[in-house]
């Protein structure tokens, strides 16, 4: 990676997050990141909420607004959809934040399988929802 923290692009910051994890969480974040790009090639990567305890920030994928964030915890990787409560989820991919008023999330623990086609459909629905809000 080149440049100082201030000069790195959001994609480079996400790369750094993945590399720093160096375990199944980094692999999961990288795999789901790829699915997001497959589902929506025009997605914009950003890194938000940078602070001393998290200098690379939280990976965020946007198009017409936030689609989802990818946060890592000791025991899971959480993909939170900013407007998930308004999205149709016919395959039941959301498994967290189910009672939240606006957001819905997908928690992936080590060894969990993700319905990749269902996830990509969910990304497409989130993008369409953002486009309809403009």
* Spatial sequence of strands, sheet with the most strands: 1-2-3-4-5
How many individual domains?
A: 1
Q: Assign an overall shape.
A: globular
Mean pLDDT: 91
Task: Describe the sheet with the most strands.
Answer: 5 strands, antiparallel
N→C terminal distance: 36 Å
Question: Compute the gyration radius: what is it?
Answer: 14 Å
CATH architecture: Alpha-Beta Complex
Give the percentage of residues in beta strands. 15-25%
Structural class category: alpha+beta
How many beta strands in the DSSP annotation?
5
CATH class: Alpha Beta
User: What is the N-to-C succession of helices and strands?
Assistant: HHEEEEEH
Low-confidence stretches: none
Helix segment tally: 3
Helix content: 25-40%
What does this structure look like?
With 134 residues, the protein is an alpha+beta fold. It has one domain: Aspartate Aminotransferase, domain 1 (Alpha-Beta Complex). Helix content is 34%, strand content 20%. It is built from three helices and five strands; from the N terminus they run ααβββββα. Strands 1-2-3-4-5 form a five-stranded antiparallel beta sheet. A hairpin with a 3-residue loop joins strand 2 and strand 3 (66-72). It is globular, with a radius of gyration of 14 Å.
Chain-wise SSE layout:
Blueprint: H1 10-21, H2 24-39, E1 44-48, E2 58-62, E3 66-72, E4 77-81, E5 104-108, H3 116-133
Antiparallel strand pairs: 1-2, 2-3, 3-4, 4-5
Features:
134 residues; five-stranded antiparallel beta sheet; 34% helix; Aspartate Aminotransferase, domain 1; alpha+beta
């Amino acid at each position: 990676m080149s440049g100082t923290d201030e000069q790195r692009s959001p994609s480079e910051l996400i790369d750094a997050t993945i590399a720093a994890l160096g375990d199944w969480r980094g692999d999961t974040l990288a795999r789901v990141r790829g699915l997001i790009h497959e589902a929506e090639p025009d997605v914009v990567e950003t890194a938000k909420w940078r602070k001393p305890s998290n200098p690379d920030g939280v990976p965020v994928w946007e198009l017409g607004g936030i689609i989802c964030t990818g946060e890592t915890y000791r025991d899971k990787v959480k993909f939170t959809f900013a407007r998930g409560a308004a999205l149709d989820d016919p395959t039941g991919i959301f498994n967290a934040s189910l009672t939240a008023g606006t957001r819905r999330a997908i928690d992936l623990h080590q060894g969990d399988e993700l319905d990749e086609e269902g996830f990509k459909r969910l990304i497409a629905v989130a993008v369409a929802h953002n486009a309809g809000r403009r």
